[in-house]
Design goal:
- It contains one helix and 29 strands.
- The chain is mainly beta.
- The chain starts with a helix and ends with a strand.
Length: 394
């Protein structure tokens, strides 16, 4: 009930803006500005699904897919911890397309909070040509507005199109792949869309052909770090403001896309599974150093976040069943062992003060479901630290 009251307050407090969008991609209102709502994640985690989740000071938002492969946005007040569809319509069943919590088209699991609005891109077809559309909605789920369409004027030359996209800070980053089916191979054009600008036209980045921004692992401000190459070893440093990118270094390992964090001028990699190491890369020199080592699959070094590294293991290595928190030097801070009969929880997302987790069984683990458990990072060092229920509205 309290969560529903919070949504009602949010509905009253949100300003509904009337948008005008021309085919060129310009809007007539003032540009979006960052506000207290915008949270700097210090890591995009885009390919690993970080864009499933974002937060304001009061609420957490989570995007998941439905049984019909649609995308539905939920929210929860941080105090009451109850997941609810982001919809204020009375008597809405929250299962049909006209529900405000449902996103139009293929949102590709990526929504983003910037300023006072929620943004998302969808793939679409305009007169037989593949295109992208930029949409925006209010924080209460209302007023879904299509702002612009991109690439709809491309001529169909018999080649195949494909798109990748994600968000970082104030930018949407779009990779436009053109695949030549007759000659083989493909070319990629990389664009940025500035959400803070009145002009929402895509700007093509002038970066070398051999560099890809398709697998982002960390970033802050205009800085963005990606891994590319056929084996995922090349570490790329991009400046989205300048529209430039360069090879920072070649890694001797392929990082997990959720295992990296940007902190104090370094990229911290927690690679406990394959390597058994915590590593650091200097973001200026590209120099690689090892912070801590252990035998692979003996420590749960998976998710670096803030001052800690979090990790959970569920049944793949019985000796590692449970949850572990270490400091950035690899020293164990606390271990939450898993006992038979207890909920089997694996970490899914981390944001703000919360480490979210799914309860999973041998055959029913659903990575698109709403996370039903959490750790409160503020409780570390107290007797209260442990997995708690984050309820769903079932």
């Amino acid at each position: 009930m309290k969560a529903r009251m919070a949504l009602a307050i949010l509905l009253l407090g949100t300003m509904i803006l009337n948008l005008c969008c021309t085919p060129s991609g310009s809007i007539t209102e003032e540009p979006e500005q960052a506000s207290f709502h915008t949270v700097d994640l210090c890591s995009v985690y885009a390919s690993a699904g970080m864009e499933h989740i974002f937060e304001t000071e009061e609420s957490v938002y989570y995007l998941c897919s439905t049984a019909d492969n649609d995308y539905q946005l939920f929210f929860s007040d941080k105090r009451d911890k109850e997941w609810l569809p982001l919809c204020g319509k009375p008597n809405c069943p929250h299962t049909t397309e006209d529900c405000s919590s449902m996103l139009e088209g293929d949102a590709s699991n990526k929504v983003w909070l910037y300023g006072e609005h929620i943004y998302y891109l969808i793939g679409t077809d305009i007169d037989g040509t593949s295109a992208l559309e930029l949409w925006r909605m209010e924080l209460d789920g209302s007023a879904h507005d299509k702002l612009c369409a991109y690439f709809e004027d491309r001529e169909n030359t018999g080649a195949a199109y494909a798109y990748e996209w994600y968000f970082h800070n104030k930018y949407a980053v779009v990779m436009y792949h053109l695949m030549d089916l007759e000659r083989g191979g493909f070319t990629t054009e990389t664009y940025r869309i500035d959400l803070s600008s009145k002009d929402l036209k895509p700007v093509r980045l002038d970066i070398p052909e051999e560099i890809s921004l398709g697998n982002p692992i960390a970033g802050k401000g205009s800085d963005l770090y990606c891994v590319c190459g056929t084996e995922g070893h090349e570490l790329i440093k991009a400046d989205l403001d300048a529209g430039s990118a360069q090879l920072l270094c070649t890694l001797p390992f392929e990082p997990d896309l959720f295992s990296c964090m940007l902190k104090d001028g370094s990229l911290i990699f927690a690679e406990g599974w394959e390597l058994g190491k915590i590593l650091r890369v200097d973001t200026e020199s590209g120099m690689l150093s090892t912070i801590a080592s252990a035998e692979p699959q003996t420590r749960r070094w998976y998710y670096p976040y803030g001052d800690y590294i979090f990790g959970s293991n569920t049944s793949s290595v019985p000796s590692l069943a449970g949850t572990e928190v270490s400091d950035l030097s690899g020293n164990l801070v606390i271990e939450l062992p898993h006992s038979e009969g207890e909920a089997d929880i694996t970490i899914s997302k981390i944001i703000g003060d919360f480490v979210f987790g799914y309860e999973r069984g041998a055959a029913n683990y659903d990575p698109t479901a709403l996370p039903g458990w959490y750790l409160d990072i503020k409780e570390l060092g107290t007797d209260s630290f442990g997995w708690h229920r984050w309820a769903t509205d079932d």
